[in-house]
Amino acid sequence: MIAIEANLRKFMNIVRTEVIVLPSRVAVILFVLALLLLPVFTQDPYLLRILIFTSIFAIFAASWDLLSGYTGQVNFGHALFFGVSAYTAALLNVHLQWPPWATIPLGALVAVLAGLVVGIPCLRLKGTYLALTTLSFPIILLGLIFAFPTLTGGELGISGLARLTTSRVTDYYTVVSIMLVLSFIMWKITDSHTGIIFHAIREDELAVKAAGINTVRYKLLSFCLSGFFAGIAGGLYVHLMRIAGPSVLEVALSFQAVIWVVFGGIVTIYGPIAAVFILYPLMEFLRILPEIRLLLYAAIILLILLYMPEGLVPWIRDKIETICPRCKVRNIATRDVCRICDTSLE
Amino acid sequence: MVQDIVVNGLIHGSIYALLAIGFSLIFGVARIVNIAHTAFYMIAAYLIHFLFEKLGMNMVLSMFLAVVIVSVLGMIFYRVVINPIQEHHAAVLIATIALAMVFQEIILILFKGHLRGTPPLIPGFSTILGVKIINQQLLTFGVVLTVLASVWGLLMKTRLGLAIRTTAQDQEVANLMGMNTERVAMITMGLSVMLAAIAGATVVPLFVLEPFMWLSPLVMTMAIVVLGGLGSIKGSFIGAYILGFAEVLVVFLVPGGAFLKGSVALSIMIIVLLIRPEGLYGIAFEEER
């Protein structure tokens, strides 16, 4: 009893000294709580559906950031991982009747393999060459899918998949909790030793090599990790749509990931997630103007980027928080002195 | 059959060459991966269709007008959108993707999704070596070669061409030598978009117009530019014919080849890159550290 009380006090202390003091951390906590509590207040199926797909694409966008943002291996064909996993899950489910909890992880594993298949030939390529080469992989696969319609369903795709769970609300909780957990894992990865090496590879690969680090291994690792997370998103997506069509491999989907990440703020993990939660529902909202929907969407992205080329979230974060010049700890912008070392923040 | 492959390969290769050289030029000078490149090509094609069919203008006049208008549009886009954010490569990339989407949607709103065709500039066909060739295809081929020759002349023989090549080689040093690199980049953008517009003008009578016609040439253009080596005009030219012929061969010889043409062309690109990571005639760019 006393131990619980002590732990609780310790927890409250951390909340008071480390979370409440920073608006960005408060925002994250509020966001998580709002997502988890939403079905208590409304069970509107349309709203839940939008949020389910938003969560799936949040995983997808964050996984692009993990690969391309952190290691700088710009991947223009990220839809490959999504699509490979989606088709694997669909084939396993429709032909072998395997349940979603088996097909989604297996799809993700196949996406990891796809990550190796793309990653190994791309090790020799850099920058724009790499970006434009990765672009071609999903298109090659798309051509094969159209050319062999008996197995893949061709243009119509594979339909008749099992539902993820039995009801909309449990779907929602499954997807949202998977999204939150995976996002947390990705954020932790980027914050770990491995993440620091990813950062370093982007900044100066030669220096990393000179420091005795096997950059090839880390680059392949980032391809595989990113493929895994994107694969989970693809598997979830296909079990919710209950059809795996060619749209999961389209160039547009790959570009969409890039748009989300750059709009939200590259190399942050939380930026892409925020961007998807802004842009995907916005896209749905714009359905009231079906004619000019995409036009408005593109115009909004252009305008935001003109004023915030670093992305939306880092821009906002810089406005509401300042970094202490001495101890590099973040402080709310209204403070005069640093909350840790009392240095003046002017 | 063989003659069909040769003729179609040459036509497709020529159009790809126009697109790829433009794409390669602006990448070389300003390091911009212009996703909207083929969207400009589509805009030019639709503009010609509009001027010719709706306003009843002379075909040649409408082609000329369209090329000029689209080039100016490209330069305005560079000035207003790309120049302010040029430091941020990712943002430039997204800006060009967004612009391509804007163009596609504007076309969808103005012309709806219908397929549209335009009559050829010179009707009829002639027979060469026993093959029927539509006159328009001959004209297209001639135009492409003329334009490419004049671009080569511009780059190699004029002061502007020298400035463009210098900026492509090293922007900072070019700036130190007193060149206004921003203006060079803007002019190159105009030139690059102009080549795309000319490609658009040559396909108007040959292909069917639709609002998504920019996507598949975009992928091919990128593949060609990578295959030939980024920033290399010669590489783009040769790469365009390699992939143009590969595409046509697959369509004619493989059953269900129409679906596989992109796959085969892109596989060729990947294989070449595995052997030569900098492309056929790639210039190894100074790595920015």
Overview of the molecule:
- The complex is a heterodimer of chains A (346) and B (289).
- In chain A, 45% of the residues are buried.
- By secondary structure, chain A is mainly alpha-helical.
- Chain B has 289 residues and is an all-alpha fold.
- In chain B, strands 1-2 form a two-stranded antiparallel ribbon.
- In chain B, helix 1 runs parallel beside helix 5, helix 1 runs antiparallel to helix 10 and helix 6 crosses helix 8.
- The model of chain B has no long low-confidence stretch (mean pLDDT 85).
- At the A-B interface, helix 6, helix 12 and helix 14 of A face helix 4, helix 9 and helix 11 of B.
Looking at the chains present, what oligomeric state does this protein adopt? Answer: heterodimer
Termini Cα gap of chain A: 46 Å
Shape of chain A: globular
Order of helices and strands of chain A: HHHHHHHEHHHHEHHHHEE
Q: Of all protein chain pairs, which has the greatest interface, and how many residues does each chain bring to it?
A: A-B, 42 and 48 residues
Question: How many β-strands of chain B, per DSSP?
Answer: 2
What portion of residues of chain A is helical? Answer: over 70%
Kindly name the structural category of chain A: mainly alpha
Spatial extent as radius of gyration of chain B: 19 Å
Number of discrete helical segments of chain A: 15
Strand order of the largest sheet of chain B: 1-2
| Silhouette of chain B | globular
Measured by DSSP, the beta-strand proportion of chain A falls in under 5%
The parts of chain A where pLDDT drops under 50 for at least 5 residues are none
What is the H-and-E element order of chain B? Answer: HHHHEEHHHHHHH
